[in-house]
Design brief:
The protein has about 500 residues and is of the alpha/beta class. The chain folds into two domains: about 375 residues, Alkaline Phosphatase, subunit A (3-Layer(aba) Sandwich); about 80 residues, no CATH class. About 30% of the residues lie in helices and about 10% in strands. It has 16 helices and eleven strands. Strands 4-7-1-8-9 form a five-stranded mixed β-sheet, sandwiched between helices.
């Protein structure tokens, strides 16, 4: 009995009471039902997956939470995430069981990553599934969250997640690959930020330029064909612009899915180079994208029946003073628990993981648990109340430019002729930019293809002005040693072709 109790298999654990025998047929609709199969007031769940940040990096500056302001290097770039926890709960004890994307995404969408963890770790020689999964040995017998939803007759749509067949057309004007600036210009034109005359001179990217598919039949049938999967050369603003058009069509046709899973990946960053935003500017783009998504849903007719869950796939590109697995996670809904004070969402210290998020979704939508991990996990009852607040959320404008590169140059139209003088780049910054170009080559479309130790240092140095030593070290280091160490590591699927 002691062993079962330690493993949460004891009959004292109400979470494992799953099945028709436990359903209270007289239960009234609530946000998170006590038992799977009982009614919920929530009919539409949006699961948003981001990339690689720790709690302290984003929210460590908040005094009401358990944070370390000295590690909150992206706090000033994330006004929307800070605004969200003024109204919705602040969860400061949510962890990712994974260590990197290879097992992070499987933990989210299938409640486990067994073959990868048991056999491959830590070298990932066989494959690197992640959100672009392509290895059936990593799938769980009961499939995925969307499989469970489909078995219940519910509708599901995937945006980016679980695509492993991305095809991005070249520019019809130049014949070359579109740049980050081209996608950004397209966003500016889509939003009416530039005149029609100016937009006519720009190389805009049509939404049909990107085509996605999945080798997993259940995913391929519900995957949006033109929402870009992982590719850090595409701004998250472009992704949101496209998704908003699809969402409007769903609203007009009353076909908003019961479960929407969306990958919004650019908080991953691309290190520090001249052709992509600096890490902190990537954060600003990703943060604004999240704010716009929440604003769009909260101003729609389905808001009163919706819940949005936001989580990182893993936390491998950052440090945290509690545990390096701790991530920023958000529960956003009219039905969340009321704020504990003015402009201060209720602080919830409960220990949660990605599996508690999964279990909460399962209780809401009536989905059968996929593995022993989500079966024994507790739903996030304390994040929800009983009275809805239907007030829409308004996004907060970015506090930083989205298009400032790691080399202090502006990308896209707004930067034509606007650059910082070359002397503004000190020797350390120059060295890291040059090294980054080599290390990140080919990595923009492959999650975690760059060496994480190199990338972590590049991100930290850039976000702290090239002046602060990486945590645990005494000085700012040059990149040569990291490049050499990465070259000496065993080759994995991330280092070569995907086939």
């Amino acid at each position: 009995m002691t062993g079962n109790r330690s493993n949460h298999w004891s009959s004292l654990n109400p979470n494992i009471q799953v099945g028709p025998d436990y359903v209270d047929k007289s239960a009234q609709p609530v946000p998170v039902p006590k038992h799977i199969g009982e009614p919920s007031v929530i009919k539409h769940v949006f699961l948003i997956i981001k990339e690689n940040r720790t709690y302290d990096q984003i929210l460590g500056d908040l005094p009401q939470g358990n944070g370390d302001p000295g590690i909150a290097i992206f706090a000033n770039a994330t006004p929307n995430q800070h605004a969200l926890v003024k109204r919705f709960p602040l969860l400061d004890n949510v962890s990712a069981p994974s260590r990197q994307s290879a097992d992070g995404h499987p933990w989210i969408v299938s409640s486990g990553s067994f073959y990868s963890n048991d056999v491959q770790s830590p070298d990932w020689i066989r494959s690197y599934p992640g959100g672009n999964s392509n290895d059936s040995l990593t799938y769980t017998p009961r499939g995925f969250l969307w499989s469970a939803a489909q078995r219940r007759g519910l509708s599901v749509k995937l945006f980016g997640e679980w695509s492993n067949g991305t095809s991005l057309a070249n520019s019809s004007v130049t014949g070359k690959a579109y740049s980050w600036g081209d996608f950004y210009n397209t966003h500016l034109c889509n939003q009416g930020s530039l005149s029609a005359a100016i937009c006519a001179t720009l190389d805009q990217v049509p939404y049909t330029a990107d085509t996605e598919n999945s080798s997993v039949p259940s995913a391929d049938g519900i995957l949006d064909r033109h929402y870009p999967s992982f590719n850090t050369t595409i701004p998250d603003q472009y992704r949101v612009d496209y998704w908003q058009g699809v969402f409007r069509q769903q609203l007009d046709s009353n076909t908003v899915p019961n479960l929407t899973i969306m990958w919004v990946p650019d908080d991953h960053t691309n290190g520090t180079n001249a052709t992509n935003p600096a890490p902190i500017n990537y954060q600003a783009d990703n943060d604004l994208a999240l704010g716009r998504i929440v604003e769009t849903i909260s101003n729609s007719k389905v808001w009163g029946e919706s819940a949005i869950f936001v989580e990182e796939d893993d936390t491998q590109d950052g440090v945290d003073h509690v545990d390096s697995h701790r991530m920023p996670a958000y529960v956003i809904s009219p039905w969340t628990v009321r704020p504990q004070a003015a402009d201060q969402g209720k602080v919830i210290h409960t220990t949660y993981t990605q599996e508690n998020i999964n279990r909460t979704i399962e209780n809401i939508l009536g989905l059968e648990p996929l593995t022993q991990f989500d079966l024994v996990a507790s739903p996030m009852f304390d994040a929800f109340g009983t009275v809805a607040d239907l007030t829409p959320f308004s996004h907060v404008p970015a506090t930083l430019p989205l298009n400032l590169s790691g080399a202090n140059t502006y990308l896209g139209y707004s930067g034509l002729g606007a650059t910082y003088a070359e002397q503004r780049l000190d020797p350390v910054q120059k060295a890291w930019i040059e090294a980054n170009d080599g290390m990140m080559k080919g990595a923009q479309t492959r999650a975690d293809a760059a060496d994480p130790d190199f990338l972590n240092h590049s991100i930290w140095y850039s976000a702290t002005g090239w002046k602060r030593p990486y945590p645990g070290e005494r000085e700012v280091l040059m990149p040569a040693a990291f490049v050499k160490a990465a070259a000496e590591k065993p080759k994995t699927d991330r280092d070569g072709d995907d086939d």
